[in-house]
Amino acid sequence: MADPAAVPVLTIDGPSGSGKGTISRLVAERLGWRLLDSGALYRAVGYAAGEEGIDLSDAEAVTRCARTVKIRFQPSADGGETRVLVNGHDATDELRTETAGAAASAIAVIPSVREALVDLQHAFRKAPGLVADGRDMGTVIFPDAAHKFFLTASAAERAKRRYKQLKDKGLSVTLATLQREIEARDERDASRPVAPLKPAEGAVVIDTTGMPIDEVVAKVFAVVRP
Ligand SMILES: Nc1ncnc2c1ncn2[C@@H]1O[C@H](COP(=O)(O)OP(=O)(O)O)[C@@H](O)[C@H]1O
Ligand SMILES: Nc1ccn([C@H]2C[C@H](O)[C@@H](COP(=O)(O)OP(=O)(O)O)O2)c(=O)n1
Protein backbone atom coordinates (compact mmCIF):
# COMPACT_ATOMS: atom_id res chain seq x y z
CA MET A 1 0.00 0.00 0.00
CA ALA A 2 1.25 3.54 -0.76
CA ASP A 3 2.69 5.41 2.23
CA PRO A 4 0.05 8.00 3.29
CA ALA A 5 2.82 10.29 4.57
CA ALA A 6 3.97 10.63 0.95
CA VAL A 7 0.60 12.12 -0.06
CA PRO A 8 0.77 15.94 -0.14
CA VAL A 9 -1.51 17.94 2.18
CA LEU A 10 -2.51 21.60 2.07
CA THR A 11 -4.10 22.91 5.27
CA ILE A 12 -6.46 25.87 5.64
CA ASP A 13 -7.27 26.88 9.21
CA GLY A 14 -9.06 29.92 10.55
CA PRO A 15 -12.04 31.24 12.51
CA SER A 16 -15.72 30.94 11.58
CA GLY A 17 -16.67 32.71 8.35
CA SER A 18 -13.10 33.40 7.26
CA GLY A 19 -13.79 31.47 4.04
CA LYS A 20 -12.00 28.18 4.81
CA GLY A 21 -14.72 25.96 3.37
CA THR A 22 -15.17 28.01 0.20
CA ILE A 23 -11.46 28.42 -0.51
CA SER A 24 -10.66 24.78 0.35
CA ARG A 25 -13.30 23.55 -2.09
CA LEU A 26 -12.04 25.77 -4.92
CA VAL A 27 -8.39 24.86 -4.28
CA ALA A 28 -9.18 21.12 -4.04
CA GLU A 29 -11.19 21.27 -7.29
CA ARG A 30 -8.37 23.02 -9.14
CA LEU A 31 -5.72 20.61 -7.83
CA GLY A 32 -7.98 17.57 -8.28
CA TRP A 33 -7.35 16.70 -4.62
CA ARG A 34 -9.64 15.34 -1.92
CA LEU A 35 -11.27 17.55 0.66
CA LEU A 36 -11.61 17.20 4.44
CA ASP A 37 -14.14 19.48 6.18
CA SER A 38 -13.05 18.66 9.73
CA GLY A 39 -15.59 21.08 11.22
CA ALA A 40 -18.36 18.86 9.86
CA LEU A 41 -17.00 16.00 12.00
CA TYR A 42 -17.23 18.07 15.18
CA ARG A 43 -20.65 19.32 14.16
CA ALA A 44 -21.77 15.73 13.52
CA VAL A 45 -20.58 14.57 16.96
CA GLY A 46 -22.34 17.51 18.66
CA TYR A 47 -25.50 16.75 16.71
CA ALA A 48 -25.40 12.99 17.38
CA ALA A 49 -24.82 13.60 21.09
CA GLY A 50 -27.77 16.01 21.16
CA GLU A 51 -29.98 13.43 19.40
CA GLU A 52 -29.06 10.89 22.08
CA GLY A 53 -29.97 13.35 24.82
CA ILE A 54 -26.37 13.54 26.04
CA ASP A 55 -25.35 16.58 28.10
CA LEU A 56 -22.59 18.20 26.00
CA SER A 57 -20.47 18.77 29.10
CA ASP A 58 -20.51 15.03 29.93
CA ALA A 59 -17.02 14.27 28.55
CA GLU A 60 -17.31 10.50 28.93
CA ALA A 61 -20.66 10.18 27.17
CA VAL A 62 -19.71 12.58 24.36
CA THR A 63 -16.44 10.67 23.84
CA ARG A 64 -18.35 7.40 23.57
CA CYS A 65 -20.55 9.07 20.99
CA ALA A 66 -17.50 10.39 19.05
CA ARG A 67 -16.02 6.86 18.95
CA THR A 68 -19.18 5.19 17.67
CA VAL A 69 -20.93 7.76 15.47
CA LYS A 70 -21.04 6.90 11.77
CA ILE A 71 -20.30 9.94 9.62
CA ARG A 72 -20.44 9.72 5.85
CA PHE A 73 -19.89 12.44 3.22
CA GLN A 74 -22.02 11.83 0.16
CA PRO A 75 -21.45 13.90 -3.00
CA SER A 76 -24.86 15.10 -4.18
CA ALA A 77 -26.11 13.53 -7.39
CA ASP A 78 -26.72 16.95 -9.06
CA GLY A 79 -23.26 18.38 -8.32
CA GLY A 80 -24.64 20.50 -5.45
CA GLU A 81 -23.66 20.57 -1.78
CA THR A 82 -22.07 17.42 -0.33
CA ARG A 83 -24.53 15.73 2.03
CA VAL A 84 -23.43 14.67 5.50
CA LEU A 85 -25.00 11.49 6.83
CA VAL A 86 -24.91 11.03 10.61
CA ASN A 87 -25.82 7.51 11.74
CA GLY A 88 -27.55 7.07 8.37
CA HIS A 89 -29.64 10.27 8.64
CA ASP A 90 -29.02 13.15 6.20
CA ALA A 91 -28.24 15.88 8.75
CA THR A 92 -26.80 18.44 6.29
CA ASP A 93 -29.45 21.06 7.03
CA GLU A 94 -29.27 20.66 10.83
CA LEU A 95 -25.45 20.81 10.79
CA ARG A 96 -25.20 24.18 9.07
CA THR A 97 -27.04 26.13 11.80
CA GLU A 98 -25.18 28.31 14.31
CA THR A 99 -26.66 26.11 17.07
CA ALA A 100 -24.78 23.16 15.56
CA GLY A 101 -21.62 25.31 15.29
CA ALA A 102 -21.86 26.24 18.97
CA ALA A 103 -22.44 22.58 19.97
CA ALA A 104 -19.41 21.56 17.88
CA SER A 105 -17.27 24.21 19.56
CA ALA A 106 -18.46 23.04 23.01
CA ILE A 107 -17.59 19.35 22.50
CA ALA A 108 -14.35 20.26 20.67
CA VAL A 109 -12.77 21.35 23.98
CA ILE A 110 -12.84 17.74 25.24
CA PRO A 111 -9.40 16.21 24.51
CA SER A 112 -10.69 12.61 24.27
CA VAL A 113 -13.27 13.69 21.69
CA ARG A 114 -10.50 15.22 19.58
CA GLU A 115 -8.46 12.03 19.95
CA ALA A 116 -11.42 9.92 18.84
CA LEU A 117 -11.51 11.82 15.53
CA VAL A 118 -7.78 11.67 14.67
CA ASP A 119 -7.70 8.37 12.73
CA LEU A 120 -10.81 9.32 10.81
CA GLN A 121 -9.15 12.57 9.70
CA HIS A 122 -5.87 10.87 8.76
CA ALA A 123 -7.84 8.41 6.61
CA PHE A 124 -8.71 11.27 4.24
CA ARG A 125 -5.04 11.51 3.25
CA LYS A 126 -5.14 9.64 -0.03
CA ALA A 127 -3.53 10.20 -3.42
CA PRO A 128 -3.27 12.46 -5.28
CA GLY A 129 -3.50 14.90 -2.33
CA LEU A 130 -5.67 16.43 0.38
CA VAL A 131 -6.93 19.91 1.19
CA ALA A 132 -7.92 19.95 4.89
CA ASP A 133 -9.96 22.74 6.51
CA GLY A 134 -10.50 23.40 10.21
CA ARG A 135 -8.83 24.82 13.32
CA ASP A 136 -5.89 22.47 13.95
CA MET A 137 -5.16 20.98 10.53
CA GLY A 138 -1.70 22.56 10.24
CA THR A 139 -0.84 22.48 13.96
CA VAL A 140 -1.96 19.02 15.12
CA ILE A 141 -3.54 16.74 12.51
CA PHE A 142 -1.19 17.27 9.54
CA PRO A 143 1.88 19.00 11.02
CA ASP A 144 3.95 17.75 8.05
CA ALA A 145 1.67 19.44 5.47
CA ALA A 146 3.61 20.92 2.55
CA HIS A 147 1.55 24.12 2.54
CA LYS A 148 -0.25 25.77 5.45
CA PHE A 149 -2.63 28.70 5.32
CA PHE A 150 -4.52 30.64 7.98
CA LEU A 151 -7.46 32.76 6.84
CA THR A 152 -8.82 35.60 8.94
CA ALA A 153 -11.20 38.56 8.51
CA SER A 154 -12.73 41.06 10.91
CA ALA A 155 -15.51 39.65 13.12
CA ALA A 156 -17.94 42.17 11.61
CA GLU A 157 -17.20 40.99 8.07
CA ARG A 158 -17.37 37.32 9.02
CA ALA A 159 -20.73 37.86 10.71
CA LYS A 160 -22.03 39.64 7.58
CA ARG A 161 -20.89 36.77 5.36
CA ARG A 162 -22.51 34.18 7.63
CA TYR A 163 -25.70 36.29 7.82
CA LYS A 164 -26.00 36.38 4.06
CA GLN A 165 -25.18 32.68 3.73
CA LEU A 166 -27.81 31.59 6.28
CA LYS A 167 -30.44 34.04 4.95
CA ASP A 168 -29.89 32.70 1.43
CA LYS A 169 -30.58 29.24 2.80
CA GLY A 170 -33.85 30.49 4.28
CA LEU A 171 -32.77 30.46 7.93
CA SER A 172 -34.01 33.11 10.34
CA VAL A 173 -31.04 34.92 11.93
CA THR A 174 -30.07 38.43 13.02
CA LEU A 175 -26.72 40.05 12.30
CA ALA A 176 -26.12 41.22 15.88
CA THR A 177 -26.82 37.77 17.36
CA LEU A 178 -24.60 36.09 14.77
CA GLN A 179 -21.70 38.42 15.47
CA ARG A 180 -22.02 37.73 19.22
CA GLU A 181 -22.14 33.97 18.61
CA ILE A 182 -19.16 34.06 16.27
CA GLU A 183 -17.09 36.08 18.75
CA ALA A 184 -18.00 33.69 21.59
CA ARG A 185 -16.97 30.72 19.43
CA ASP A 186 -13.67 32.42 18.40
CA GLU A 187 -12.90 33.02 22.06
CA ARG A 188 -13.62 29.42 23.10
CA ASP A 189 -11.79 27.87 20.10
CA ALA A 190 -8.72 30.07 20.58
CA SER A 191 -8.45 29.74 24.36
CA ARG A 192 -8.86 25.97 24.82
CA PRO A 193 -5.73 24.20 26.07
CA VAL A 194 -5.78 21.42 23.44
CA ALA A 195 -5.42 22.24 19.72
CA PRO A 196 -6.44 25.90 20.01
CA LEU A 197 -7.26 27.97 16.97
CA LYS A 198 -3.98 29.62 15.93
CA PRO A 199 -1.81 29.83 12.83
CA ALA A 200 0.60 26.89 12.43
CA GLU A 201 4.28 27.73 12.46
CA GLY A 202 5.20 28.88 8.99
CA ALA A 203 1.57 29.26 7.90
CA VAL A 204 0.78 31.93 5.33
CA VAL A 205 -1.75 34.25 7.00
CA ILE A 206 -4.27 35.89 4.66
CA ASP A 207 -6.55 38.63 5.99
CA THR A 208 -9.53 38.32 3.65
CA THR A 209 -11.41 41.41 4.94
CA GLY A 210 -12.67 43.16 1.81
CA MET A 211 -10.90 40.64 -0.45
CA PRO A 212 -12.97 38.89 -3.13
CA ILE A 213 -12.97 35.08 -3.18
CA ASP A 214 -11.02 34.79 -6.46
CA GLU A 215 -8.28 36.99 -5.02
CA VAL A 216 -7.93 34.74 -1.97
CA VAL A 217 -7.65 31.70 -4.27
CA ALA A 218 -5.03 33.55 -6.34
CA LYS A 219 -3.03 34.25 -3.17
CA VAL A 220 -3.05 30.54 -2.32
CA PHE A 221 -1.88 29.59 -5.80
CA ALA A 222 0.80 32.26 -5.75
CA VAL A 223 2.35 30.14 -2.97
CA VAL A 224 1.45 26.66 -4.22
CA ARG A 225 2.11 27.15 -7.97
CA PRO A 226 0.51 23.95 -9.37
N1 LIG B 1 -13.38 36.49 0.61
C1 LIG B 1 -14.69 36.44 0.72
N2 LIG B 1 -15.44 37.53 0.43
C2 LIG B 1 -16.78 37.50 0.53
N3 LIG B 1 -17.49 36.42 0.93
C3 LIG B 1 -16.81 35.31 1.24
C4 LIG B 1 -15.39 35.26 1.15
N4 LIG B 1 -15.00 34.01 1.52
C5 LIG B 1 -16.12 33.34 1.82
N5 LIG B 1 -17.21 34.08 1.65
C6 LIG B 1 -18.61 33.72 1.90
O1 LIG B 1 -18.76 33.73 3.31
C7 LIG B 1 -19.58 32.63 3.74
C8 LIG B 1 -18.80 31.80 4.76
O2 LIG B 1 -17.71 31.17 4.09
P1 LIG B 1 -17.22 29.73 4.49
O3 LIG B 1 -16.29 29.28 3.42
O4 LIG B 1 -18.37 28.84 4.85
O5 LIG B 1 -16.37 30.07 5.82
P2 LIG B 1 -15.78 29.13 6.93
O6 LIG B 1 -15.66 27.74 6.34
O7 LIG B 1 -14.44 29.72 7.27
O8 LIG B 1 -16.71 29.20 8.09
C9 LIG B 1 -19.98 31.88 2.47
O9 LIG B 1 -21.27 32.26 2.08
C10 LIG B 1 -18.95 32.30 1.44
O10 LIG B 1 -19.46 32.31 0.13
N1 LIG C 1 -10.45 21.06 13.19
C1 LIG C 1 -11.48 21.56 13.88
C2 LIG C 1 -12.66 21.96 13.21
C3 LIG C 1 -13.71 22.45 13.97
N2 LIG C 1 -13.60 22.52 15.32
C4 LIG C 1 -14.71 22.98 16.16
C5 LIG C 1 -14.59 24.43 16.56
C6 LIG C 1 -15.56 25.16 15.67
O1 LIG C 1 -16.11 26.31 16.29
C7 LIG C 1 -16.63 24.09 15.38
C8 LIG C 1 -17.30 24.20 14.02
O2 LIG C 1 -16.29 24.24 13.02
P1 LIG C 1 -16.61 24.65 11.50
O3 LIG C 1 -15.31 24.70 10.78
O4 LIG C 1 -17.66 23.73 10.95
O5 LIG C 1 -17.26 26.06 11.70
P2 LIG C 1 -17.20 27.35 10.76
O6 LIG C 1 -17.57 26.90 9.37
O7 LIG C 1 -15.80 27.86 10.82
O8 LIG C 1 -18.18 28.26 11.39
O9 LIG C 1 -15.94 22.85 15.47
C9 LIG C 1 -12.42 22.17 15.94
O10 LIG C 1 -12.30 22.29 17.17
N3 LIG C 1 -11.39 21.67 15.21
UniProtKB/TrEMBL annotation:
Compartment(s) where it occurs, according to its Swiss-Prot or TrEMBL record: Cytoplasm
Xref: PANTHER family: CYTIDYLATE KINASE, CYTIDYLATE KINASE/PANTOATE-BETA-ALANINE LIGASE
Coiled coil (UniProt feature): none
Binding site for ATP: 14-22
InterPro entries: Cytidylate_kin, Cytidylate_kinase_dom, P-loop_NTPase
EC nos: 2.7.4.25
Stored HAMAP family: Cytidyl_kinase_type1
Family: Belongs to the cytidylate kinase family. Type 1 subfamily.
Superkingdom per UniProt: Bacteria
Name under which the protein is recorded: Cytidylate kinase
Domain called Cytidylate kinase: residue spans: 11-224
Record keywords, A-Z: ATP-binding, Cytoplasm, Kinase, Nucleotide-binding, Transferase
Chain's gene name: cmk
SUPFAM superfamilies reported in the protein's UniProt record: P-loop containing nucleoside triphosphate hydrolases (SSF52540)
Source organism of this protein record: Luteibacter jiangsuensis
Classification via Pfam families: Cytidylate_kin
Alphabetized GO MF terms: kinase activity
Record field: catalytic activity: CMP + ATP = CDP + ADP; dCMP + ATP = dCDP + ADP
Main localization of the protein described in the UniProt heading: cytoplasm
